Fold:
Amino acid sequence: MKLGLINSAWVQAQQPTVFGLQKTKELGFDCVDIFADPFEIDVRERRLIKDECDRLELPIVSIACVAVGLIDFNPSVRDFHIEREKAYLDLAYEYEADNVLLVLGEYIWNREVIPPQEQWSLAVDACRELGDYAAGLNLKIALELEPFKLSLVNSVETMVRFLDDCDHKCVNANIDISHLVLAGVEAAELKRLAGRAIHVHISDCDGKVHGDLPPGRGVVPFEPYLEEIRNLQIDGAISLELEYSPEPYKIVEWVTEAYEATAQLMRAAYLRDEN
Structure:
């Protein structure tokens, strides 16, 4: 598999786009995931990202999209977010990416006002529509498993059920290793995602809260998860997620440490495509 980096590591440290992409390539990453809202970036920034990645020969694999509005109880809000997520798919097509990483929302009002099944059905219907749109662009959607109590998809069990209900070839799963640990999901459960997982996120955490630390700074036992991921034979990338660096002025050191640790883990698991 390829080793990638989500460029939010640079964005949240307020580093210029070109600097972040150049450092990503310089450090040895094979590819990059882009965290950019097509409704917010202007045409110059949009073009700059693609031109610089092409110049660096740094393929864009995934576009990350937080889409909590897809399950809002207001139809007008849902309609807006359907169009917004289609714009993400358009951007992924423009960038020649493989997928859009989709983060669904959470049950609202402690699941006590709106029946949970109603919100679940709204999400399924939305993902089917987006799956149809993705199919027309030869793209896929990778659903994120979030480790929070009220998240719609917060376990392998709920991921499998959601994918079954969607029943769409373009709606698939993303595996986030630290999220699995936080959710109490054992590595062996990943067998249930055979043929359905297309992308992977990797980071460390303290086992208590969402952390996105460089591997080795937390408690995540990476080896069994990487072994299961190898067995899934995913034709894709493992992308480092390093958000909210505690020392943004040391972001280069932070990313370098994470790259070296992850590359070693992938080599040990026979996962890294070495040139």
Summary: The two ends are 12 Å apart (CA to CA). The beta strands are 2-6, 31-34, 60-66, 99-103, 140-143, 171-176, 197-202, 237-240. The mean pLDDT is 96. The chain has one domain: 2-268.
